[in-house]
Specification:
By secondary structure, the protein is of the alpha+beta class. The protein contains five helices and eight strands; from the N terminus they run βαβαβββββααβα. Strands 2-7-4-3-1-8 form a six-stranded mixed beta sheet. The protein has a two-stranded antiparallel ribbon with strand order 5-6. The longest helix has 10 residues.
Length: 158
């Protein structure tokens, strides 16, 4: 029996790494995550083939801009070992890494951004526990149910 496919929303600031960047390179390690809950999602929850809603944050119109796929099992984020990296962690060792990542592969760009404002209009249908519409949520990786995935993608303009 195969494991059920899971779905995720992964946020990136387009100035740092955008959906266009992912389209250009095809596949990229999702490095620099320094939040334990987001790390745990990658380490313990994500499996190859899981769906990813690619979300642009900290931009004029934040929202879902594309679809990607989890393309690797979790492995240590090398930036934690590099003293010159913004993501260096002096407490991390190769024997006991603290930070993990997965590779993400480009699937497609959406025709138009599904804006956060549009998503908020559907907060009731998405459910009270949907973290993107909850106040104060700063996580860069969020679990998405199959029903939420379907609803969010139904908001794409055709």
């Amino acid at each position: 029996m195969t494991a059920r496919k899971r779905y995720w929303l992964m946020k990136s600031e387009p100035d740092a790494f955008s959906i266009d960047d992912l389209q250009r390179v095809g596949r990229e390690p999702w490095n620099g995550v320094r939040n334990y809950q987001a790390r745990n999602f990658m380490r313990d929850g994500m499996k190859v083939g899981d769906g990813v809603l690619f979300y642009h944050s900290n931009t004029k119109v934040p929202g879902i801009v594309g679809i990607a796929t989890v393309a690797s099992e979790a492995y240590p984020d090398d930036t934690q070992f590099n003293p010159k990296s913004d993501y260096y962690d002096p407490k991390a060792t190769r024997e006991e890494p603290r930070w993990m990542l997965v590779d993400v592969a480009f699937e497609r760009k959406l025709r138009d951004t599904i804006s956060l404002d549009e998503i908020k209009l559907h907060a009731d249908a998405l459910g009270e526990g949907f973290p993107l519409t909850a106040r104060g949520n700063r996580l860069s990786i969020l679990p998405v149910t199959a029903a939420q995935w379907k609803l969010l993608l139904s908001l794409e303009k055709h």
